């Protein structure tokens, strides 16, 4: 006879028994033991016959206060974190080598420490003397930040458990190794184990942890993708080596808006905050020249104006070059195809170069109209109106589609002295604030009305 795999459970206390009995040995209740099927009846052992404890459930309505936040006093950093640092949160920071991740986090640790937080900085890539030299160069030698250099995960967790800091910075997670994993530091197994232990420690002890992560050639954080799912916030520190601007961009945030950006300027004394990035990105605009268009974009919750620059020149190559910096190259190719197929404006035999001034990266579809405007301006050698901003999405049929938050875009443009806007005909705008609105139905009308092309 086949042996039954059913379990006997006490309905009063939940204790499991191998066989039925009239009285529960755990709680002493009578006639409360019932026979139940195991959790899994499928092939293999599954979860077995014994059940776990029930999880308490609650409704969606709650009176709990939002989590408390600690402000660093660095407005750009606080903005990207969603309004401040949440205790017990885990933040993963990625960026290219030498972009300034360690500088940013050392300045952030000093800012939090000066506001009363107990901050610990653990470096696995540099010696303590190197970090102290950087702190002296940045003018942070007097900040109450405690420093350590270690890569042994067990020793780091023991130290954090003994010190009980409010904030811990681990630079970087790829250098850590656990004696429970038989793999080299930086391997997938080691990175996963280190991230899991540190995130679990942060949740259990209420310690906010920053993890620095290396990036691959494609710009993604190295290691298993599961590390990004473990943490609460994922932040990328971006920028071009040849530009002084640095963009701190959140791509995931459980405690605030994603896609928020903070703008910094790299100086000899560290990173300086940029309170008005639109004015900075447009600071070098002089007389109107062909190939320049100003795009009114939205980054997170903040409107940002950037300059899209284009250069179109005859090509001597069989396959003309398409060089794009700061924009999605696939999107640019689509706009070129729409211009040729729907508007009859060919770019065959022409080299096309596109750039976003200041090292900014724009991913919004709303930038389509500004890209098309810069391309047409460069091709026709005709400058756009210097006081005009553009935004709108281009469909494959050549029609212009409306975008979100038009009012915020126009307010930012008017604040910087722009007096007119070119946007889709179907765009709803409430309160343009005295700006002149030029509505365009499709890309053919835009090319004919503004440039006399098509």
From TrEMBL:
Nucleotide-binding recorded as keyword: yes
Keywords, comma-separated and alphabetical: ATP-binding, DNA damage, DNA repair, DNA-binding, Hydrolase, Metal-binding, Nucleotide-binding, Stress response, Zinc, Zinc-finger
Keyword DNA-binding (UniProt): yes
Residue ranges occupied by any RecA family profile domain in the UniProt entry: 66-215
Pfam families for the chain: AAA_25, ChlI, Zn_ribbon_LapB
Signal peptide limits: none
Ranges for region Lon-protease-like: 351-454
Family matches, as InterPro entries: AAA+_ATPase (IPR003593), DNA_repair_RadA (IPR004504), P-loop_NTPase (IPR027417), RecA_ATP-bd (IPR020588), Ribosomal_Su5_D2-typ_SF (IPR020568), Ribsml_uS5_D2-typ_fold_subgr (IPR014721), Rubredoxin_2 (IPR041166)
Binding site for ATP: 95-102
Superkingdom, taxonomy of origin: Bacteria
Sequence motif RadA KNRFG motif, residues: 252-256
Protein role: DNA-dependent ATPase involved in processing of recombination intermediates, plays a role in repairing DNA breaks. Stimulates the branch migration of RecA-mediated strand transfer reactions, allowing the 3' invading strand to extend heteroduplex DNA faster. Binds ssDNA in the presence of ADP but not other nucleotides, has ATPase activity that is stimulated by ssDNA and various branched DNA structures, but inhibited by SSB. Does not have RecA's homology-searching function.
Free-text comment on this protein's domains from its UniProt entry: The middle region has homology to RecA with ATPase motifs including the RadA KNRFG motif, while the C-terminus is homologous to Lon protease.
Family note: Belongs to the RecA family. RadA subfamily.
Protein name: DNA repair protein RadA
Taxonomic placement: Bacteria, Pseudomonadati, Pseudomonadota, Alphaproteobacteria, Rhodobacterales
This protein's encoding gene: radA
């Amino acid at each position: 006879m086949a042996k039954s795999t059913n379990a006997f459970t006490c309905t009063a206390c939940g204790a499991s028994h191998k066989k039925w009995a009239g009285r529960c040995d755990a709680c002493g209740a009578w006639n409360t033991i019932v026979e139940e099927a195991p959790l899994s009846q499928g092939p293999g052992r599954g979860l077995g016959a014994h059940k776990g404890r029930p999880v308490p459930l609650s409704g969606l309505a709650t009176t709990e206060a939002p989590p408390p936040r600690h402000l660093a006093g660095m407005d750009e950093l606080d903005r990207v974190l969603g309004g401040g640092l949440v205790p017990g949160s885990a933040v993963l920071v990625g960026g290219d080598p030498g972009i300034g991740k360690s500088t940013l986090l050392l300045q952030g640790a000093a800012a939090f420490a000066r506001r009363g937080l107990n901050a610990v900085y653990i470096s696995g890539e540099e010696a303590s003397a190197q970090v102290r030299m950087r702190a002296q160069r940045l003018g942070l030698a007097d900040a109450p930040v405690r420093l350590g250099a270690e890569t042994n995960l067990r020793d780091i967790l023991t130290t954090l458990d003994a010190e009980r800091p409010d904030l811990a910075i681990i630079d970087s997670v790829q250098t850590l190794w656990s004696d429970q994993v038989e793999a080299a530091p930086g391997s997938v197994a080691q990175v996963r184990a280190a991230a899991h232990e540190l995130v679990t420690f942060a949740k259990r002890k209420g310690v906010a942890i920053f993890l620095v992560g290396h990036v691959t050639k494609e710009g993604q954080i190295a290691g298993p993708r599961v590390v990004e799912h473990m943490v609460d916030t994922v932040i990328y520190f971006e920028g071009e080596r040849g530009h002084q601007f640095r963009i701190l961009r959140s791509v995931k945030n459980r405690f605030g808006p994603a896609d928020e950006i903070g703008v910094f300027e790299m100086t000899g004394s560290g990173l300086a905050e940029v309170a008005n990035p639109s004015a900075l990105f447009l600071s070098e605009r002089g007389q109107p020249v062909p190939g320049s268009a100003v795009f009114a974009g939205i980054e997170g919750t903040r409107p940002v104006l950037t300059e899209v620059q284009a250069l179109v020149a005859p090509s001597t190559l069989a396959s003309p070059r398409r060089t794009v910096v700061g924009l999605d190259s696939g999107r640019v190719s689509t706009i070129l195809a729409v211009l040729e197929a729907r508007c009859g404006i060919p770019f065959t035999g022409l080299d096309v170069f596109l750039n976003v001034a200041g090292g900014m990266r724009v991913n919004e579809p709303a930038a389509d109209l500004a890209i098309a405007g810069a391309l047409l301006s460069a091709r026709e050698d005709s400058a756009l109106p210097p006081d005009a901003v553009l935004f709108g999405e281009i469909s494959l049929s050549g029609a212009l589609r409306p975008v979100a938050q038009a009012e915020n875009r126009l307010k930012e443009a008017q604040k910087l002295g722009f007096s007119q806007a070119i946007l889709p005909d179907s765009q709803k705008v409430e309160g343009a604030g005295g700006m002149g609105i030029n509505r365009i139905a499709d890309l053919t009308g835009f090319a004919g009305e503004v440039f006399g092309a098509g």
